[in-house]
């Protein structure tokens, strides 16, 4: 019996040791984002270290090492990242960039001030979770002649330029807040295969984003507002670049294209409330537009720029405007917040197809649908809102991919629906359910003057907002087909605004006033186009949830099961021997 007791005591000690080891592993996992392995180290950076001390740690590090800024505030920082490092903060550390050129920068021939500077040797580095105040510096962040840099979840304020990326490849600028630069918020100069996504870029004195010689880049889902010049400006060359899903408002212009454009796409952007500025360096006639083509814009043939599915509304001058000496340019399918082909506020040097807003009744729910010039429902589009009055009740409808759900309807009665378009309300009489599509009467009813055009339906066609017959569509019991509305002054495919006088549009086009991509860009590379056939998108790192990676519970259960089996077997050893 003493042997059994001794054996059980030994098993208990072993069990306690194993459990303690598992708890230690859990504690380590909870306190580290990046686990050190091999030669990679994880170090903390405290605020009592000088800039030279931190730089020395960076210089002595191994590729793949992680440095975490753990304190609240750091001053006089100017760090060159000359190795592959992970630089992070989990506590929103604030770094004040130095106004002096550091010794390290001088030794490398860099004569500008900055917060962080990534070199070619720093390829593959990460900068995340840090607030950079660059009020007394040239730049918040510089990425120069390198690749595979990821800059995410940072806040950059001030600087001549907030973030400068030049001569680089496969750079990701993701979910940052960039504001109050004395020049451009973000500048891309000779950049390839890069992603600028999900950033908030605002209150910069020049453009939110300025590009020069970019290839296979993706500028998507950014919010760009209240910048002194344009939301996005493109200069020199742009090829195979996608500008998609951005919300751009309250700038001098929304998007300014002043580059030779090859296979570029501008789609599904919201370009609104951009304002005139008679004191602008671009000249007063070149401001207040949702989309503006400058004198340097060129795009022809099979590689022509495509502009589709954008929402252009409430801009103070034109929704879209072409430089008066440029050749006419044809836009794709866009919504100009107008059902009137004579008031799309698109200048005559741009040919613009007129989309149409329609109503649907789907499962007794009032739904609004955008249709292209041929009457087809669109299934990708910029996100925007409008107001809808249903039987005296006001709703806000949000369009997502061309469709907006408003409210449920009683299918047994008729409904009066008024939709706000260009600050006026248009009446759509939705009759009791008789099919999938509700009746949409295009008769115009302005809340301000109550003037209505003729209404009704035709077996051979639909009526437009002026009451004119349009034989291109087909009626179904009075249903609006959403077909194209003809313009008596132009080809039936295009709307215009007759108020434009091209002869007066001779103001400074901005070539001299804007930086043309050269502001503080330093020495530029060749910027040769990539051989790849599509815009580069960074694949996010594979992550596994803590429920899967934290296996301590399984380990403990396994240990207990094994111990139980050993104890059970030992107690019944005599029976087995018999």
Count of helical regions: 6
Q: N-to-C terminal Cα separation, in Å?
A: 18 Å
Measured on Cα atoms, how large is the radius of gyration? 31 Å
Binned, the helix content reads 10-25%
Mean pLDDT: 79
Largest sheet, in brief, is: 11 strands, parallel
Structural class per helix/strand content? Answer: mainly beta
Q: How many E strands? A: 42
Number of domains: 4
Key words describing this protein structure:
578 residues; mainly beta; eleven-stranded parallel beta sheet; ten-stranded parallel beta sheet; 6 helices; 42 strands
Explain the overall architecture.
By secondary structure, the chain is mainly beta. The chain has four domains: 2-31 and 543-577; 39-142, no CATH class; 160-323 and 505-527; 356-495, no CATH class. Helix content is 13%, strand content 34%. The strands form seven sheets. An eleven-stranded parallel β-sheet has the order 1-2-5-8-11-14-17-20-23-26-29, with no helix packed on it. Strands 3-6-9-12-15-18-21-24-27-30 form a ten-stranded parallel β-sheet, with no helix packed on it. The protein has a ten-stranded parallel β-sheet with strand order 4-7-10-13-16-19-22-25-28-31. A hairpin with a 5-residue loop joins strand 41 (462-463) and strand 42. Helix 1 (2-30) runs antiparallel to helix 5 (552-571). The radius of gyration is 31 Å and the shape is globular. The chain starts with a helix and ends with a helix.
Question: Can you lay out the helices and strands and say which pair or pack?
Answer:
Elements: H1 2-30, E1 42-45, H2 51-60, E2 65-69, E3 73-77, E4 79-81, E5 85-88, E6 94-97, H3 103-107, E7 116-118, E8 126-128, E9 131-134, E10 139-144, E11 150-152, E12 155-158, E13 161-169, E14 172-174, E15 177-179, E16 186-192, E17 195-197, E18 200-202, E19 209-215, E20 218-220, E21 223-225, E22 230-239, E23 242-244, E24 247-249, E25 253-262, E26 265-267, E27 270-272, E28 289-293, E29 306-308, E30 311-313, E31 320-322, E32 329-334, E33 350-354, E34 356-362, E35 365-371, E36 384-390, E37 393-399, E38 403-408, E39 415-421, E40 424-430, E41 462-463, E42 469-470, H4 546-549, H5 552-571, H6 573-577
Parallel strand pairs: 1-2, 2-5, 3-6, 4-7, 5-8, 6-9, 7-10, 8-11, 9-12, 10-13, 11-14, 12-15, 13-16, 14-17, 15-18, 16-19, 17-20, 18-21, 19-22, 20-23, 21-24, 22-25, 23-26, 24-27, 25-28, 26-29, 27-30, 28-31, 32-33
Antiparallel strand pairs: 34-35, 35-38, 36-37, 36-39, 39-40, 41-42
């Amino acid at each position: 019996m003493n042997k059994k007791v001794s054996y059980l005591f030994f098993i208990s000690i072993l069990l306690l040791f194993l459990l303690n080891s598992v708890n230690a592993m859990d504690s380590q996992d909870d306190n580290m984002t990046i686990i050190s392995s091999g030669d990679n180290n994880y170090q903390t950076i405290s605020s009592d270290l000088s800039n030279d001390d931190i730089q020395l740690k960076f210089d002595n590090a191994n590729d793949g090492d992680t440095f975490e800024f753990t304190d609240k505030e750091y001053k006089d920082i100017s760090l060159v990242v000359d190795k592959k490092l992970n630089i992070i903060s989990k506590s929103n550390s604030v770094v004040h960039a130095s106004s002096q050129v550091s010794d390290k920068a001088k030794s490398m021939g860099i004569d500008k001030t900055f917060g962080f500077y990534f070199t070619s040797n720093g390829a593959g580095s990460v900068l995340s979770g840090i607030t950079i105040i660059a009020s007394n510096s040239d730049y918040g962040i510089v990425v120069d002649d390198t690749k595979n840099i990821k800059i995410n979840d940072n806040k950059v304020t001030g600087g001549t330029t907030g973030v400068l990326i030049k001569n680089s490849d496969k750079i990701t600028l993701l979910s940052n807040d960039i504001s109050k630069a004395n020049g451009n918020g973000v500048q891309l100069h000779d950049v390839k295969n890069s992603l600028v996504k999900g950033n908030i870029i605002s209150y910069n004195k020049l453009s939110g984003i300025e590009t020069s010689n970019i290839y296979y880049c993706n500028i998507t889902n950014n919010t760009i507002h209240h910048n002194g010049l344009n939301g996005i400006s493109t200069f020199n060359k742009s090829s195979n670049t996608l500008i998609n899903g951005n919300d751009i408002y309250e700038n001098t212009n929304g998007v300014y294209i002043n580059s030779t454009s090859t296979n570029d796409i501008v789609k599904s952007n919201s370009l609104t409330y951009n304002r005139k500025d008679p004191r602008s360096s671009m000249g007063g006639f070149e401001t207040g537009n949702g989309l503006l083509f400058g004198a340097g814009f060129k795009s022809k043939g099979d590689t022509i720029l495509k502009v589709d599915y954008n929402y252009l509304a409430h801009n103070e001058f034109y929704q879209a405007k072409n430089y008066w000496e440029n050749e006419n340019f044809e836009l794709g399918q866009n919504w100009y917040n107008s059902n009137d082909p004579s008031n799309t506020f698109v200048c005559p040097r741009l040919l613009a197809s007129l989309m149409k807003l329609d109503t649907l009744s789907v499962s007794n729910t009032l739904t609004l649908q955008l249709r292209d010039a041929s009457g087809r429902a669109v299934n990708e589009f910029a996100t925007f809102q409008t107001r809808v009055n249903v039987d005296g009740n006001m709703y806000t409808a949000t369009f997502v991919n061309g469709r907006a759900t408003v409210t449920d309807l009683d299918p047994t009665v008729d409904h009066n629906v008024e939709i706000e378009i260009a600050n006026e309300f248009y009446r759509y009489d939705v009759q009791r359910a008789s099919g999938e599509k509700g009746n949409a009467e295009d008769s115009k009813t302005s809340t301000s003057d109550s003037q209505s055009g003729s209404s009704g339906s035709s077996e051979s066609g639909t009526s437009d907002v002026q009451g004119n017959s349009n034989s291109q569509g087909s009626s179904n019991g009075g249903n609006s087909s959403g077909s194209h509305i003809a313009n008596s002054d132009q080809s039936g495919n295009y709307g215009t605004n007759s108020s434009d006088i091209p002869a007066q549009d001779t103001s400074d086009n901005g070539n001299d006033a804007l930086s043309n991509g050269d502001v503080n860009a330093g020495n530029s590379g060749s910027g040769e186009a990539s051989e790849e056939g599509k815009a580069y998108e960074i694949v996010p790192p594979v992550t596994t949830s803590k429920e899967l990676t934290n296996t301590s519970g399984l380990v403990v259960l396994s240990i207990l099961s094994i111990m139980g089996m050993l104890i059970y077997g030992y107690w019944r050893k005599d029976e087995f021997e018999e």
